[in-house]
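Entry 12.
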Amino acid sequence: MTIITEKSTEKRVHLPYLDGLRGLASLYVVLVHVEPGIGDQLPLHWFFFARVMKYGAFSVISFIVLSGYVLMLPVARSENGHLPGSLINYIKRRSRRILPPYYIALFICLLIGAVVFILEQYTSFRWNEVAGFGSFSPKFSLMDVVTHLLLVHNLSEHTYISINSPMWSIPTEWQMYFLFPLLLLPIWRRVGLTSVVIIAFVIGITPLYLLNGFLEQANPWLLGIFSLGMAAADIGFSRKPKLVAIRNSLPWGRLAIIFTGIAFITEWRPLGLHIWINQSFAGLAFACLFISLTKSITEGKKPPLALRILQHPWAIALGTFSYSLYLIHGPVLVFVRYFLFYLPISPNMFAAASYLLGTAMSLIIAYWFYLFFERPFMSSFLKKRKIKDVVI
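Predicted 3D structure (tokens):
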């Protein structure tokens, strides 16, 4: 009877902080991609703020660990260690969730590029690269378009940040969706959790050291970081005695803080370390954070500060359309900058307006994009999460 009760309770566990993390991480990515200066004209106080906004890669790391965690959750909770349903259904669910908004956002970028091309051909208008400097460019090649359509633009150094640069991580996520059931889960079932993490990292860093940096722009080490999310889910929900003992014995919150500190230290450029090292420590920090916060929820403890922040209604509301925000903020920020560039305002006002107006417009347009182009393709469960209900 006790086992049955534990299983039913486990299935009812809801982790809203995951949405909150996704939302805040997406908002941080927007701030990272704001270009507040014109050349060297950036006031000192804005320069220091911009320096704080240089850790956008850590937000991407949070998305990767989160993907591994969320995809592994039903497997860790299952009796047989398999994904619920068939592999085909799994691919259909992932495709429906990811692809339609991606292709619509890509079409919008291509349409903007076509409009700019036509204007330059038949009018006196010329796209100003200085005014339109940022994470979107209407100037791209046919190869850029083809590789984006095939979701392989992360495999070439010439295409991976073209068109809409934040989209570089979408094919990486897409490829991991296939590697998860076809490679990582079979290894996990056969040789265990520790081995799958080690093998994933070996696969990820092998091209760097044995193939002279082959595919480095694709960040292949993210496969190992993805496996850390898998490990966090397995440790957090497994009923295996060894993993239960690990879950209950280690200070996961403190480990998250320690690994965060190491991630920032190893990011320091004078050390000359490859970025996969600090990103891996960041991945460890997020994995430990997930275990700690989930443990706090399942045990009914008083929520720590991090959990209260991530479970704030506004953070969760932001998380509901975070994917749309990630996809569409690049061109929005560039056009806001383009508009501000020609206004007779001081560098200080330009920086302030870039952050405030750029962020506000990104949120507004992303929300409308979510309503029209993301939400219709969500599952019925996800559709129930309405922003106004969360906030109220």
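Annotation: Confidence is low (pLDDT under 50) at residues 1-11. Residues 87-122 form the longest helix (36 residues).
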